Amino acid sequence: MSRADVVVVGSGIVGLGAAYAAVRRGLSVTVVDRTERPVGATIRNFGHLCIGAQTGEARRYGDASRGLWLRLAQDAGFWLRESGTLVAARHDDELAVLERAARDGGIRMLDAAELLTRAPLRRGDLVGGALIEADLQANPREAADAIVRHLAGLGVDFRFRTAVTAVETGRVHTTRGPIDAGLVVVAVNHDIDQLLPGVAEDVGIQRCALDMMRVAADLPAPLTAPLLTGWSLVRYGRFGALPETAALRERLHAERPDLAALDLNQMYTQLPDGSLLVGDSHVKDVQPGPFQPEAAFDAFLDEARALFAADRFRVLERWQGVYASGPAEFLREQVADGVLAIAATTGIGMTCGLGLAETALSETLGWASSSALITAQEALA
Ligand SMILES: Cc1cc2nc3c(=O)[nH]c(=O)nc-3n(C[C@H](O)[C@H](O)[C@H](O)COP(=O)(O)OP(=O)(O)OC[C@H]3O[C@@H](n4cnc5c(N)ncnc54)[C@H](O)[C@@H]3O)c2cc1C
């Protein structure tokens, strides 16, 4: 029978964050995942770490994540840039939302000319925009694998192609036998309804399925940061509840019911190879279907053609991503003694996941000073 101080179920960004928090405190850590490497939401997203668009608990976790991302990028050696986030405003009501949010700091208003020096867009209807300064961009296709390699180098034991069938105080049951654990951290995203169905049902967690695509475009210049639009402003915590946002939402939905029906977040990031990640649509259900309507991809391409100063867009890939969706932005539940379940329950887990895991673990284990470490190890013995 093997044993670790901390056994983490799930090797997405939240599970990796938990493993990182525990191993830095000198604890032995095993991470179990049923796939052969991370292939869940953590590699299927935009790589947009949209810290400055959050508020409340999400902002706290986002701020905590920022330093962890920067340190991991350096230590694990993966691409990350302190790009900020650009927002393109094509209507005065979008500018009004940005101006109102900018009063609280961390957002710099841009005129249309400044925006065009940072993003290869058509002049078209642009009325200006903004830069959300604290934000980062990662390449989601390489970050998780690099973090796995780095954590393995720090001594974390990864058990891939091993499904967890049950968790209880002090033990994790897997398809390759049980593992004894001081602390169990369940970080399985939407699959919480399979491993801990009672928790998922009590909290009201379902799945949110998103369509995404990657395109090659003949852009005249690089996109220097993730790019949001008015459709993003109505979603993110910092903007969503502003009084100005109600009018924006109403106009967008009245003008484009087709895009509203897709629950569109029109946004883009450019990968280091120059291709653009384009998305995304949202369908929430206990079990969304696997079939991706072509109408969503047509809309992505039409909207990209209207926004970017490019004539040719060639689709390179399409995929579906899924994340947990619940009534609150996060799940943090002690489901039994020494068993924690954590998840981002809206689409901000790349932004907040490392900070969520760090906070949950630090509150459970204490800091890694030698005395705190002894306390933590004694607590787990
Ligand atoms: C299309 C898309 C775009 C997004 N864009 C952004 C963005 O730009 N910025 C942002 O902040 N967030 C974004 N998100 C959200 C973000 O990607 C997720 O919130 C985050 O990746 C969730 O991380 P996770 O570790 O909880 O889940 P995952 O990465 O899905 O990892 C969960 C892991 O648990 C494993 N697992 C499940 N059940 C078991 C079991 N029983 N036994 C063993 N292993 C198990 C799975 O195999 C998986 O590897 C996006 C999400 C999607 C889908």
Description:
Strands 5, 6, 7, 13, 14, 15, 16, 17 and 18 form a 9-stranded mixed beta sheet that branches. The chain has 2 domains: 2-78 and 139-203 and 328-380, FAD/NAD(P)-binding domain (3-Layer(bba) Sandwich), CATH 3.50.50.60; 85-133 and 206-325, D-Amino Acid Oxidase, subunit A, domain 2 (D-Amino Acid Oxidase, Chain A, domain 2). The protein has 381 residues and is of the alpha+beta class. The protein is 39% helix and 27% strand. The protein has helices spanning 13-23, 41-44, 56-76, 92-102, 112-118, 140-153, 192-195, 197-203, 230-233, 237-240, 243-255, 257-261, 294-307, 349-365, 370-380; strands spanning 2-9, 29-32, 48-49, 80-81, 85-89, 107-110, 128-132, 136-138, 157-159, 164-168, 171-174, 179-186, 206-217, 227-228, 267-270, 276-279, 283-285, 313-325, 330-336, 339-344. α1 (13-23) runs parallel beside α14, α3 (56-76) crosses α6 and α4 (92-102) packs antiparallel against α11. The structure holds flavin-adenine dinucleotide. The site of flavin-adenine dinucleotide (FAD) has 42 residues, from α1, α2, β13, β18 and β20.
Brief write-up:
With 381 residues, the chain is of the alpha+beta class.
Number of domains: 2
What is the CATH superfamily of the largest domain?
FAD/NAD(P)-binding domain
Individual helix count: 15
Summarize the amount of helix as a percent range. Answer: 25-40%
Question: Which structural class matches the secondary elements?
Answer: alpha+beta
Number of strands: 20
In the CATH hierarchy, what is the architecture of the largest domain at level 2? 3-Layer(bba) Sandwich
First and last CA, distance: 16 Å
The major beta sheet can be summarized as:
9 strands, mixed
Overall pLDDT confidence: 95
Q: Whole-number radius of gyration? A: 21 Å
- Assign an overall shape: globular
Contiguous low-pLDDT stretches (5 residues minimum) are 368-381
Domain FAD dependent oxidoreductase: 5-359
Pfam family, one: DAO
Protein name: TIGR03364 family FAD-dependent oxidoreductase
GO cellular component, one term: cytoplasm
